[in-house]
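Quick one:
INPUT:
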């Protein structure tokens, strides 16, 4: 049984120096360690060669983004399980074994994530994955431990393994055979939400996505794009619409997309009122590029088997969060997760 930890790097020399030592220390007995460099323009590769000789280096010929960068790199690695690991993560002792053990014992588990806590506030969950992800009926992602910008403190409330809708790409354990069968991550996404799309496709293929609380990592977050970034706004909105258009059952597709266009319009107006002109323009750009892709995705839908999957929160999270003031995962109605 082979496990490969694969860190995708782009101009991340400081993250490599800061976090790679912990990855090596706590992973070398359980996995091969790779850094896939996305054609960095800093001296990342030279640092790897001179300071981290036991790490295997894959050099991509250009910056393929998160999705494409991993697809190109993973195609060159022989392993039974991949661990996609962000460069800005501090791992802990024994972080690999409980997750791999769980996936070996249950072949239906396609992907898994550990507990993701904040590197800066280690008693709090981290935005990008927390204790496992879900989406609401309009495609808004959220996590056990994080709804929009409200982040919970870890008080032991998520200490049992659980089925989730999506596992974070910041630290994603995935079964190699299924990754390859599904064609990997969708490279059109470039960055953001590609792991949610992948997990959705895996669930339609009969796989389970699991949260493993016996493994913990600490994430800086915003390592490539800051949280307040119009480029991030663009990717999140464009990619979310692509994901919905790819994976929603036919009977829900049109009404969900219409609702999302309206809700995006409200968000764009708020950006403008708050002085966020770049974000306002990013919403318009995201919609325009999504509309351009519709004919191609329509053709793909004709060749794919699209079925309803469980784990979607069948309510409007925006309404419940901003109007009903439901700020924690425990505030949500369990009966609406169907």
């Amino acid at each position: 049984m082979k496990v490969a930890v694969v860190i995708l790097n782009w101009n991340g020399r400081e993250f490599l120096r800061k976090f790679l030592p912990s990855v090596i220390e706590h992973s070398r007995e359980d996995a091969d360690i790779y850094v896939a460099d996305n054609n960095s323009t800093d001296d990342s590769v030279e640092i790897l060669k001179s300071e981290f000789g036991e790490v295997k280096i894959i050099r991509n010929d250009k910056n393929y983004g998160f999705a494409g960068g991993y697809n190109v790199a993973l195609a060159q690695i022989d392993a039974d399980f991949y661990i996609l690991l962000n460069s800005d993560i501090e791992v802990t002792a024994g972080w690999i074994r409980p997750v791999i053990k769980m996936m070996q014992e249950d072949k239906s588990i396609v992907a898994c994530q550990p507990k993701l806590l904040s590197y800066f506030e280690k008693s709090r969950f981290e935005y990008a994955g927390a204790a496992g992800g879900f989406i609401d009926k309009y495609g808004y992602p959220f996590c056990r431990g994080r709804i929009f910008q409200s982040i919970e403190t870890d008080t032991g409330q998520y200490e049992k393994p659980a089925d989730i809708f999506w596992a974070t790409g910041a630290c994603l354990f995935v079964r190699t055979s299924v990754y390859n069968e599904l064609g990997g991550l969708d490279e059109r996404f470039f960055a953001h939400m590609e792991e949610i799309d992948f997990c959705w496709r895996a669930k339609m293929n009969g796989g389970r996505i699991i949260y493993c609380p016996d493994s913990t990592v600490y994430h800086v977050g915003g390592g490539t794009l800051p949280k307040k970034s119009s480029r991030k706004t663009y990717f999140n909105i464009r990619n979310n619409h692509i994901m919905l258009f790819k994976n929603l059952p036919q009977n829900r597709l049109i009404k969900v997309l219409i609702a999302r266009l309206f809700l995006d319009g409200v968000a764009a107006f708020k950006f403008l009122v708050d002085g966020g002109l770049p974000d306002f323009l990013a919403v318009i750009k995201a919609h325009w590029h999504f509309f351009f892709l519709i004919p191609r995705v329509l053709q793909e839908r004709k060749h794919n088997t699209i079925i309803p999957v469980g784990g979607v929160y069948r309510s409007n999270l925006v309404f419940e969060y901003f109007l009903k003031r439901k700020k924690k995962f425990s505030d949500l109605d369990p009966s609406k997760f169907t």
